[in-house]
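LOG
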Amino acid sequence: MLANHLFEYPHEFKLESGKTLPGFQLAYTTYGELNKEKNNVVWVCHALTANSDFTEWWPDLFGPGKLYDPTKHFVICANMLGGCYGSTGPLSPNPRTGVPFFHSFPQITNRDVVNTFELLRNDLGLDQIHTILGGSMGGQQALEWTIEKPDLFENLVIVASNAKHSAWGIAFNETQRQAIKQDLTWKLNTERAGLNGMKVARAIALLSYRSHLTYDLTQSEETDEVFDGYKASSYQVYQGEKLASRFNAFTYWILSKAMDSHNVGRKREGIAKALKQIKANALFVGIDNDVLFPVKEQEFLAKHIENASFHVIDSKYGHDGFLIEMSKLTEKIQLFYKQKKLKPVLV
């Protein structure tokens, strides 16, 4: 029942910057089937380096007998524009030249990404979405979309995200991009350009994704006799190599900048006024020791949206708790549906 698809948009697509793309494609994954009323849609927005297969990175939320059951729901997730898992990105051929975009790929924003999702939704004929959910960058996009199309969504679930990317978050992303720039291959137009720099960038990112406690519990030495070759050191190298085996520096660069530009108040007379446009029942979940998206950011969202719910998950994993603490997240979402007297399962 899990199926992969490709949406082709052959027309010029105008970006928020004023630049254009000569069309684009989105790779997307679906799970389950639409019911007769077409009111069982669950739309998932993925995080920075994820793909459209939500069963890979949120496996405990989706499946037979789970919170979102494919026998009850029609679940969909699209690899975001600029990505490298089937959607148009920097390594895609530019139709105007016949060669990959590489460094010429235009800068995009979360609002641009949401606009591509909207075109896909219209193509699929989906007039209502039961629940949209996302974590981290995916949560930013889910928030954008519910502001842009307030009558489309019944429920909004956002985990470890925010209304505006913080100076702290931007500084982390810029430091990572500086690491990529130090790679002498970065100026080249090749698929592997900047790859070693991206490995360092990923190691930097891990420091914001996890916490002091996480490293202390998982990467500390077992004896007092070690003076080199630390577990924490090899872990950082491993994480960089792991990402380099499935990602590219161009996409990392483009999407991290899209995250930096996230601000729902832009051209909407400020953040508070923008958030007031949301009509969906909203749940915001924070991770207690998340240093990248601290809980005050989710609490802020809940305070500025009418009748929104706010919960905190205790975790030793920092920001990555939004991907790891599945049983706790499931519990919070189930409680949300119950309190709002909603049906998480549609028949």
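LOG (cont.) second protein
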Amino acid sequence: MIRKFALSLTATALLAAPAAHAADIVDTAVGAGNFETLVAAVTAAGLVDTLKGEGPFTVFAPTDEAFAALPAGTVEDLLKPENKDQLVAVLTYHVVPGKVMSTDLTDDMTAATVQGGEITIDLDNGVMVNDATVTTADIEADNGVIHVIDKVILPE
């Protein structure tokens, strides 16, 4: 009888536990498991606190495979402390201020990035951001949204 009561109490406690809060953009990327390079780069660039901030932000997030497709040595060079400014420029080129959901996109629209350049959206052959394809859209975080892309886009 005591054992049954203990099990019942444990089940009740679990049911009464508050729901988990949505994660911020960084925690969402970490939890996804296929953005290890992006998270390492954001950390090296000193952008973690920014992307954990209030936002909202729209992040076009390249996968680990997208970073691996860059020319050999590119990621390693970008991660060197002396190349931090260049790394920040590349990463912030993937970020648009505000929360832009896929339903907000229109063909041939441009959007100003945090880096200062512009990206172009093309809806003719799926959803393209510059020359990268959006493979998964609208991953919501509590401070914005992530759209997964298959290439690292580089500022001109």
